[in-house]
Design a protein that fits this description.
Bound molecules: 3,4-dihydroxyphenylalanine
CATH class of the largest domain: Alpha Beta
Number of helices: 11
Distance between the termini: 94 Å
Shape: rod-shaped
CATH topology of the largest domain: BirA Bifunctional Protein, domain 2
Strand content: 15-25%
Number of strands: 9
């Protein structure tokens, strides 16, 4: 076949090959086959050496023209293929923004925290300040300042985690009483404070005991504070938490830092005081300890107990939550089973 024929045929075949290359990779193979170093155009150029100069010029022009033509077609084809690929990807990765979103699972406040927040607001509304104390406490504040000298038998009421001879994980929030009393300036007004927080006891854990739980301490000190103030305050707390229909009563008790000391019972919300398993058939449920601040506690903090007096109370937040929501096992509060925790979502505030 003479060279003119080869060029003519290449023109046809090349155009067809370019047209039918369906991917960029195929197109590239076609390009190499047509115009590469060992491609067909190059072969023709080599073959031109063999023919006479006059035909050589003619054929040279044709080959150049063909190269331009191929180059242009390859270029057009490539652009079309890229465009097609992009379109296909967009189609494949199409997002339907109208689909409903996947639900995000949100945690809830812990039920003990819910109660704590609620009580804080309640007391703040009555003019109390909220005070924090350290969880690693000294014997001095946890016991001595609260009228519990060394070797006092009442220390046995609270089995304590000791860290060294003088430091322990506080067994009650009451040390915050002493810390706050020491700092308070009565020239600025009466002291009214609550202090919520974690406390620790060396109990064996069971359905009603935990080595760690939450308390809320309360303390009011001023001139002319009476037991009537204590009773009224506690009664409004009980009604706020357990319902307006609840009756309360105070029973004599003993705490080293109060004199007289009381415990408060709330009429059983389960049986309304008739007697049932929840209240152990007494009609009453014990909810907190309280009393009139012992003069020694005031004097220890440098306050004249002939002028000032007050009341204090300590309530268990976990215990309140158990009673309010009928929780069967205190361990549910810290084993973090989401099914348990989520039940209190609607109580969140
Ligand atoms: N700290 C006591 C306890 O953990 C509770 C308590 C009782 C606190 C009487 C008080 C109080 O402030 O006056 O058992």
């Amino acid at each position: 076949m003479d060279l003119f024929e080869r060029v003519k045929q290449l023109r046809k075949e090349g155009a067809k090959a370019i047209e039918s290359a369906a991917t960029e990779k195929k197109l590239d193979e076609v390009r190499v086959k047509l115009m590469g170093r060992k491609g067909e155009l190059t072969e023709i150029l080599h073959a031109m050496k063999e023919i006479d100069p006059q035909h050589r010029r003619e054929i040279g022009q044709e080959v150049n023209q063909l190269r331009d033509q191929f180059t242009e077609r390859l270029d057009v084809s490539k652009k079309a293929l890229v465009k097609k690929m992009v379109e296909q990807r967009l189609e494949n990765e199409r997002l339907d923004v109208t689909l409903p979103g996947r639900p995000v699972s949100l945690g809830t406040k812990h039920v003990v925290r819910i109660l704590q927040d609620d009580l804080e607001r309640f007391f703040i509304g009555m003019g109390y300040q909220v005070v924090q104390g350290p969880e690693i406490e000294s014997e001095h504040y946890n016991f001595e300042m609260l009228n519990l000298p060394k070797d006092h038998p009442a220390r046995d009421m609270q089995a304590t985690f000791y860290i060294d001879d003088d430091h322990l994980l506080r067994s009650q929030t009451s040390p915050v009483q002493a810390r706050t009393l020491e700092k308070h300036d009565f020239k600025k007004g009466p002291l009214k404070m609550i202090s919520p927080g974690k406390v620790y006891r060396r109990d064996d854990d069971d359905a009603t005991h935990s080595h760690q739980f939450a308390q809320m301490e309360g303390l009011v000190v001023d001139r002319h504070i009476t037991m009537g103030d204590l009773k009224g305050t506690l009664e409004s707390v009980a009604k706020h938490v357990f319902g307006q229909d609840r009756e309360t009563r105070l029973r004599p008790s003993y705490f080293p830092f109060t004199e007289p000391s009381v415990e408060m019972d709330v009429s059983c919300f389960n049986c309304d005081g008739k007697g049932c398993a929840v209240c152990k058939y007494t009609g009453w449920i014990e909810v907190l300890g309280a009393g009139m601040v012992h003069p020694n506690v005031l004097e220890n903090a440098g306050i004249d107990s002939n002028i000032y007096g007050g009341f204090a109370f300590g309530l268990g937040l976990d215990r309140f939550a158990i009673l309010k929501y009928g929780v069967g096992d205190i361990r549910d509060f810290y084993t973090n089973d989401v099914r348990f925790l989520e039940q209190f979502r609607q109580e969140e505030n």
